[in-house]
Amino acid sequence: MEFLKGAYSMLPHKFRGGRDPAEQAVLSTKTVVSVLCAACSLQEGAGVPDLPNHGLSPPVYPSPPGSGSTNGRWTTAYDRARDLVSQMTVEERVNITQGWPGICVGNTGEVPRLGIPALCFADGPSGIRGQEFVSAFPAGIHVAATFDRDLMYRYGRALGDEFHGKGINVALGPVAGPLGRVAKGGRNWEGLSNDPYLAGAGMGAVTRGIQDAGVIATPKHWLLNEQEFRRRWTELGDAVSANVDDRTLHELYAFPFMDALREGAGAVMCSYQRTNHSYACQNSKLLNGVLKTELGFEGFVVSDWDGQMSGVASANAGLDLVMPRAGFWGDNLAEAVRNGSVSEERLGDMAIRILAPWHYLHQHTAYPPPAIYTNTQKHFPVDVQADHARLIEEIGAAGTVLVKNVNNTLPFKKPKFLCVYGYGAALKASPWQNRDRYGGGYEDNFGWNTFNGTLITAGGSGGSSPPYVVSPFQALQERVAQDRGILRWDFYSEDPTPYVNADACLVFINAYASESFDRPSLKDDFSDRLVLNVASWCANTIVVVHSAGIRTVDAWIAHPNVTATLFAGLPGQEAGHSLASVLYGDVNPTGRLPYTVARSESDYGDLLNPTTSSDPFPEANFTEGLFIDYRYFDKHSITPQFEFGFGLSYTSFAYADLSVSKTTTTTTTTDLAEFPDKNVRIVQGGHPALWEVVALAKCTVTNTGAVDGAEIAQLYVSIPGGDSPVRQLRGFAKVGPLVPGQEREVVFELTRRDLSVWDVVVQDWRLRRGVYEIWVGASSRDLRLKGELEVR
Ligand code: NOJ
């Protein structure tokens, strides 16, 4: 009863009696129950599909205190954090578990007498948002398209260096939630692709990069934030509930976060929506259970901004820090500790978890003060751009995917006469809106307003603030000037004037997306008509698509005059230079599609649209389970336009000599144990055995073409048992650059996790006994070699 009293006192006013009778009138018993219930009982799951634990959030209490036992570095950080917290009063502890108004997007409370400063939090995943003298990096989806771990790391490191230089303690990224379940998801572009393995590689590498720079990384949004529509509580009712079964939760959605945790991520942001009927920031199964127990998380869970939905319930379910203000905590949390609704240990654990990463990243020794300004303040500018423009250009090119190239259209051979068409070629040139401005209020966040110009990022907190933007038009002008050629352009017309003498016509279109809404369509008629109109007279029409996710191309891709097409992603501030380096062949393309491009929108079936229910308690049932994107297309034998992992090169490659073997560790024992050893302690990232390399696959790749180039070799696994996806990506490597005729051996390391399924009964990762099929090739459908691995 005490507990319920404490919980009730922390409900928002709209849920309890008192101030506003109108608010009181909307109080519904069911709402109160749903707010309280995450902390007290099994959530109801009636009427949900018959999949293991589908729609259920079993209660997991008490909240496991962080132990610092992952490794010596965490132990030292915990010793220091515990020492500080032991000297703090309840009020001081409460003070650091909440956001306060300040100069950063989020600011924690400070404890000056103990030398604990306000920690500064800032967006976002592809560059510091809303600031000056910072870089605009490619978006997550673009980085994923590089299939290049080295670039992923260097991206994270450069990002981290900029956050560090600006005195920002906590970077709000990288993103693997949304993963990209629905094709029209508004924020899919922020994340590192809808394949959990590729996203995991990115999450791990970017997290390591950010934290090597001394900045706390915040993988987000945990978990299942797969649509924007009704992601939050509104007057219509509760946020959407993402209902998923236990196996899918582990193998698909939690999977990429594991890599970030393994690399030491110091924070995790919980998401807005409900997961299995319980708000993610008060879902004890997700926070206490999966994150803090199974995955041994040592750091702190921070709420998404204003995403806290209850006081006591969220504290006991494992939330450690509420942003950007006190929310339901503050004095109420102190009161809840005094009346026993929240234990002193729990509050202490929150504070320790917040201060441990601060020590883990050595931010307690010397950290620059936040250099965060508004343009109305006179200040000394702090420039953190360094030479990141070169890296941005490199990643921009490496994530550009060539999907069509006939008649040796590309690379260009010093063309003399180019025509450039379409609103996407230049900055903010719009046939619909008279906008040509960057700066002034919220437009400092470039992505909000750029959907009619070159798309270098997209909208919302994942957008960036470029110092400048090199448009494709600018870069093409530079090249044409060098070659003493000529250009003609028209950024506005849907049906530009023909120049039949042009060497090539470049048509620039885009597909915009943003946080807070989902995409209305994967294509638009204006752009499709523009391409067709140009192609009707220009025999060499090259289409460049900058897109915040999937863009279908069925209207024109087969047109004989469309000779080349590039998915140029969201490449950041050097967009034009990146693209030109691929067009002119300075860079031989290695970008690969990080999603499936269907022949028509309807091919995505139920995975096209978000749930748009107007029900007070909307539900999104993830009944497809593991089968999203290419797994869905493979399962239902649907031929895509361009499959996941696909991308062309200016040269060609041959694959040969696949061998698959267990590693020495596993072959010296007679067999691979089905389950990881129960007696081994869990560390951050999960059971250590999950990360052991248990098998190796080797093959050779040879450049069989006429020019230098690198290949992205991909490994897919078919897990025995008949209930897993036909094939799943479980390895990739950038091979080369190789000169013509050159051969190189590629080695793929397969970990226990890569080959395991989540056993919902035993509640553990399990190897399947039987024959695993191992496929190596150039995409998820261009499979060149096949081998086997037997687990007995
Ligand atoms: C809400 C977004 O969902 C989150 O990703 C972001 O970090 C915060 N706002 C802070 O801007």
From TrEMBL:
Protein name (database record): Beta-glucosidase cel3A
A Pfam family that the UniProt record links to this protein: Fn3-like
Single GO term (MF): beta-glucosidase activity
Species, as recorded: Chaetomium strumarium
Catalysed transformations (reactions): Hydrolysis of terminal, non-reducing beta-D-glucosyl residues with release of beta-D-glucose
Gene Ontology biological-process entries: cellulose catabolic process
Keyword terms, alphabetized: Carbohydrate metabolism, Cellulose degradation, Glycoprotein, Glycosidase, Hydrolase, Polysaccharide degradation, Secreted, Signal
Subcellular location: Secreted
Cited InterPro entries: Cellulose_deg_GH3, Fn3-like, GH, Glyco_hydro_3_C, Glyco_hydro_3_C_sf, Glyco_hydro_3_N, Glyco_hydro_3_N_sf, Ig-like_fold
Residues of the Fibronectin type III-like domain: 711-780
Pathway this chain belongs to: Glycan metabolism; cellulose degradation
GO cellular component, one term: extracellular region
Coiled coil: none
Gene3D superfamilies: Glycoside hydrolase family 3 C-terminal domain (3.40.50.1700), Glycoside hydrolase, family 3, N-terminal domain (3.20.20.300), Immunoglobulins (2.60.40.10)
Membership in a protein family: Belongs to the glycosyl hydrolase 3 family.
Main location: secreted
Highest rank taxon of the organism: Eukaryota
